[in-house]
Amino acid sequence: MDVVVIGGGLVGMTLGLALAQRGLAACVIDRQPLAVMSDAAYDGRGSAIALGSKQLLDSLGLWADIAPEAGAILDIRVSDGDSRLFLHYDHTEVGTEPMGWIVENLVTRRALTRALERTPEITLIAPASVERLDRTPGGVTVHLADGRVIRAALAVAADGKNSPIREAAGIRSTRWDYPQTGIVCSVGLEKPHRGIAHERFLPAGPFALLPMSGIPGHPHRASIVWTEKTELAPQMLALDTNDFESEMTKRFGDFYGRLSLIGQRWSYPLSLLMAARMVDHRLALIGDAAHAIHPIAGQGLNLGLRDIGVLADVLGAASRLGLDLGDKAVLEDYARRRRVDTLGLIAATDGLNRLFSNDIAPVRLARRLGLAAVNRVPPLKHFFMRHAMGTMGGSLGALLGQTPTTLIAGASAPVTGPAPR
Predict the structure, then answer these.
(1) pTM for this structure?
(2) Phi and psi for 317 in degrees, rounded to 5?
(3) How high is the pLDDT of residue 403?
């Protein structure tokens, strides 16, 4: 075995496919049964897949399976409370393809599972619990709770922000919890959304309405991302359906008509995490095990997919040259190439949340004027748009108006200004 990936979520499974594409044998391990992870009740979130991330998924043969259930993001509109000043991104200003797509995590997870099952270079073990990871000069040995043993040249931790593998390796992390909770749900609209993603900033946090593909009975569907103060979130979640819908509609406005709840609601605590380093002896961290960011910029999954692109390329090149995949120089190359993007996104998302999640009058005026200024300077706006689309790389991908991605549903104040097209 070349690489053992501990954690079979969206990032871990995608890495397995990327490694197999480069001729490497990978084993992906997760503690959850596949049937549970593929159930609709497992995860209510969705993700915004930026154009650059879509290209990666397409190269792995996944996009054709995902595309029929992906909602295209053609425009993005960013506003601050009830201000008539706003920032509007139109995809036709920089190309012909959508800026991104909203895809339910369930859809992506099922596509990944099918792809892994038909890829002989990948061994998928689930459910299984990792009891111990031994890292020696010659390789790694994973001991499972059921007695099985897997040996490889390198271990990759893709086991989430509370990563036991990261903790066991002694890799310190900086982490703090935001006083915010994300509420996630899907809604039906009375009018077409026309592919417009809305993000509105309120004192409690951002609210996003994100275009989704239609389903029977709900041809105009969207995902709601409601960032609420943690102490108030339980009250919102406890509302009956009619009152919950009224709260959403009151906050967002009624130009799409009344927002009608589809299915259940989920809630997630929001936090930031940054590992002190992304590599250690024969170990690499990817996804939330390495970094977890606020969803305000919509880059959580896209950031993890960029980890995958770099790590797979580094390991593929090392394999072609006959190098040890766990060699220190190989792993440090991966860490170096990911450092600027990761640190930049963490700083940008945290800064944006702090800037917009307050109601201080001078700050409110300054940020509204800032949104309007960017909207009126095409070169600057196009620069931010290309970063939002993930086609330029770099560390500025979380700046103003980026597609909201790890969905956490929300509501907003009444919308003013020109109605969506």
Answers:
(1) 0.86
(2) -65, -40
(3) 33
